[in-house]
Design goal:
It is built from 15 helices and 16 strands. The protein has 461 residues and is an alpha+beta fold. It folds into 2 domains: 258 residues, BirA Bifunctional Protein, domain 2 (2-Layer Sandwich), CATH 3.30.930.10; 93 residues, Anticodon-binding domain (Rossmann fold), CATH 3.40.50. The chain has an 8-stranded mixed sheet with strand order 1-5-6-11-10-9-7-8, with helices on both faces. Strand 12, helix 12 and strand 13 form a beta-alpha-beta unit. The C terminus is likely disordered. The site of adenosine monophosphate has 17 residues, from strand 6, strand 10, strand 11 and helix 11.
């Protein structure tokens, strides 16, 4: 291979004096956050397994068209918040703002319609919304979600809601589901007309944004956060009073199945969700005792979307799903002192004195790990005192000390950290011996000491 010459190499960039910083609305997930995230994902996986949901991962980038078509051009997360741009081939692409559209696309693309229905899928990952950053609102957010496609039965809605509710309970957060039905293509137009009539006669009292919503999507007036609009929403016509027979029967059945599973819920006629694809059941999930509960603080939400797959060009296929925000959940867990389980401490620490001992320690470390022993070291440190301090801090059961004398004798010093007893063990046998002691300790709850040998002491370099 040709050796790089000076002229091949790029000159080192000059320091600019600028320090890199996070993009606005972005967040690092630090090592201290990870145990929370791991616990949440583990709970999601456990629930998915017991309710037979299978994992799907769809790309972060999709055609912008997909979200325009599925979620609706006028939904906030598309119209105002979607990151979209032409790629290098000038195709308009988007960073996914939500998960259901991608799952629906995959359902069509991979012919999932030919599988036994419902097809139950779950996902987790990053989503992007050019939202106004504030506490708990990020531009890169993470959600997990569950989707059941291909079955119109109301019991599927109720089971899915049970998954969400049980998931939060398993994390120590009891929740209540706020639920509504927004009807379907038969009854919704009648309701929307009644709603529009109600607001039109009060047009002077609604905010500017709602005046636009009145023309484009009157349903959205119900979840406006402006105080005047909120006041008007209290007396607005309610969807449940305008449901057709099919939607009413469906809704009543969902509630009955929730009762049957003892899932706490309350009816909330304002839960319309901002996205075009919802039909019939809509719901949001709130932590019990979250006094400031507002749509801003919902842990998640979802609903039925019976027209979505067809709207995207697939065969008519019903579906229902929900998504929850991970950042918000982590925030709540922290606020409530719900600490995730601590990772298991290592059982063994390897201390060493001298360079040949350091090399041997590398081998020993590897051998112990292969036997499934949780092992720690501090190989860059020289002094045994500093190393023993680390061992103490980690709370290990045994420290193995590889000293110079021991190296020459082919032995290792094993120190029981609980009672301070030190023994000399043959280097060839130390791994088996440690495994034996640790397993014995596990089954009997205590570690049996082996007879102490004379001359067991540490020899410093
Ligand atoms: P949505 O897809 O809008 O129904 O949101 C579902 C859940 O995702 C919400 O209840 C929040 O927990 C979370 N979420 C939505 N937007 C954001 C955001 N900008 N930052 C953090 N979490 C969010």
């Amino acid at each position: 291979m040709k050796k790089p010459t000076q002229s091949d190499q790029e000159p080192a960039p000059k320091p600019t004096g600028r320090v890199p910083s996070l993009l606005r609305g972005m967040k690092d997930t630090l090592p201290t956050d990870q145990p929370f995230w791991n616990q949440i994902i583990k709970a999601v996986e456990a629930l998915a397994q017991s309710y037979r949901y299978e994992r799907i991962d769809t790309p972060i980038l999709e055609e912008a068209w997909l979200f325009n078509r599925a979620v609706g051009k006028e939904a906030d997360i598309v119209e105002k918040e979607m990151y979209q741009f032409p790629d290098r081939s000038n195709d308009l692409i988007a960073l996914r703002p939500e998960g259901t559209a991608g799952v629906a696309r995959a359902y069509i693309e991979h012919g999932f319609v030919n599988l036994p229905q419902p097809v139950r899928l779950y996902y987790s990952g990053p989503f992007f919304r050019y939202d106004r950053p504030q506490a708990g609102r990020y531009r890169q957010l993470h959600q997990f979600g569950f989707e059941a496609l291909g079955d119109p039965h109301p019991i599927i809605d109720a089971q899915l809601i049970a998954v969400a509710s049980r998931l939060f309970s398993s994390l120590g957060i009891p929740v209540t589901v706020q639920i509504n039905s927004i009807g379907d293509a038969t009854c919704r137009p009648v309701y929307v007309k009644a709603l529009a009539d109600y607001y039109r006669s009060r047009k002077n009292s609604i905010c500017e944004a709602c005046k636009k919503r009145l023309l484009r999507n009157p349903l959205r007036l119900l979840d406006c956060k402006e105080p005047d609009c909120r006041g008007l929403a209290v007396d607005a016509p309610q969807t449940v009073d305008h449901l057709c027979d099919g939607c009413r029967t469906h809704f009543v059945s969902v509630l009955e199945y929730l009762d049957e599973q003892e899932i706490p819920y309350t009816l909330n006629p304002k839960i319309v969700r901002g996205l075009d694809y919802y039909t019939r059941t809509t719901f949001e999930i709130y932590a019990d005792g979250d006094e400031a509960a507002s749509a801003q603080s919902a842990l998640g939400g979802g609903g039925r979307y019976d027209g979505l797959i067809e709207q995207l060009g697939g065969r008519p296929t019903p579906g229902v799903g929900f998504a929850c925000g991970i950042e918000r959940l982590v925030h709540l867990m922290r606020e409530r002192g719900l600490e995730p389980p601590k990772p298991l401490a290592p059982d063994v620490f390897i201390g060493q004195l001298g360079d040949s001992a350091r090399k041997l320690s590398l081998k020993l470390f590897d051998q112990l790990q292969r036997e499934g022993v949780r092992v720690a070291e501090s190989l860059s440190k020289d002094g045994i005192k500093a190393q023993l301090e680390v061992a103490d801090r980690l709370g290990v059961k045994y420290t193995l000390i590889v000293g110079q004398k021991e190296m020459m004798d082919g032995t290792i010093l094993v120190r029981d950290m609980e009672n301070g007893i030190q023994e000399v063990v043959d280097i060839q046998k130390v791994v088996t011996e440690i495994v034996k002691r640790l397993t014995r300790g596990q089954s009997s709850g205590r570690i049996e000491p082996i007879p102490s040998q004379p001359g067991a002491e540490i020899h410093a370099d």
